[in-house]
Amino acid sequence: MSPDPEASPNQEPAQPVQSAQQNQPDKGGIPIPENGSAPAWGVAFITTFTTVFLAELGDKTQLAALLLSAQSGKPGVVFLGASLALICSSLVGVLLGRWLSKLMPPQQLERLAGILMVALGLWLGRQAVVALAPESLPLT
Amino acid sequence: MDLALLASTFVTVFLAELGDKTQLAIVTISGTSSRPGAVFAGSSAALVLASLLGAAAGGSLSAVIPTNALQLAASVGFLVIGLRLIQRSSTSAEAGDEAET
User: Fold this and answer.
1) Nearest chain B CA: its distance from A12 CA (Å)
2) Distance between A93 CA and the closest CA of chain B, angstroms
3) Structural domain tally of chain A?
4) pLDDT digits 0-9 by tens, A121-136
5) Does A25 fall in a domain?
6) Inter-chain contact B77–A78, Cβ cutoff 8 Å?
7) Which residues of chain A have pLDDT under 50?
């Protein structure tokens, strides 16, 4: 990413803020940033659940699970294996996010995360629109 | 219990999921949220439910659920979360600038 002229003055003052956060008591080694507008547990849960569930339906992982399930005739075992794999991968994702939030000033991370989410949304939306109406669009 | 099938499912799904858009979404949500436990619980529950539907439907899922419409809804959700994060980062940048001066 090219250096943002607006963001660059904030880089240096961001360092003392980060070290001040490290002085806060840790909970199991994961520093939880004290945010004035921290959402409630349920809000974070529902936001994540909805986003991930909608994004995951019709995804290639599901198609792989479908294929294995249909081939083997043992949907229970396929479900167990797929669930364990997905829980592990979401744990990896959560830990990666925590690690990034320790590495970068929160404001910069929020901007990067926002850009990434918008890009994913546009890509996903384009795919869905192309699949829904293939003929009416010159995109393909 | 068919351990070979269990292992092959695990490896296939885990590798397919690494670096996937779902995992990127989880990384962004957990990195910018102060509730990693809630994010982990929410994403795990959603993924388990999605794979339950996948295993139960066994190939006829797209006939039952309009997956493309759901993907469109998900893309709107991604856009909303992304724009809110960008907005929040720019407003906190302004607040930080005001605090410095």
Assistant:
1) 12
2) 5
3) 2
4) 898 888 888 877 766 6
5) no
6) no
7) 1-36, 140
Can you tell me the distance from the alpha carbon of B12 to that of B23, in angstroms, rounded to the nearest whole number?
Answer: 15
Mutation target vs B (from A21, A41, A79, A94; most B CBs, 10 A cutoff) = A94
Structural domain spans, chain B: 1-61, 66-101
The residue among B32, B41, B31, B24 whose CA lies nearest residue B78 is B24
Is 70 exceeded by the pLDDT of residue B1?
no
- Rounded alpha-carbon distances, angstroms, from residue B23 to A94, A117, A119, B9: 9, 12, 14, 18
pLDDT tens digits along B25-61? 888 888 888 888 999 999 999 988 888 877 776 656 5
Q: Tokens for A91, please give them.
A: 């744990």
Statement to judge: residues A84 and A113 lie in one domain: no
Confirm or reject contact between A55 and chain B (CB < 8 A).
Answer: yes
pTM above 0.80, yes or no: no
Q: Crossing angle for the helix pair B36-57 and A60-72, nearest 10 degrees?
A: 40
- Chain A residues within 8 A of B32 when measuring between CB atoms: 97, 101, 106, 109-110, 113
Interface of A with B in 96-115 (CB under 8 A): 96-98, 100-101, 106-111, 113-115
Residues of chain A with pLDDT > 90, as a percent, come to 12
Residue of A nearest to B60 (CA): A66
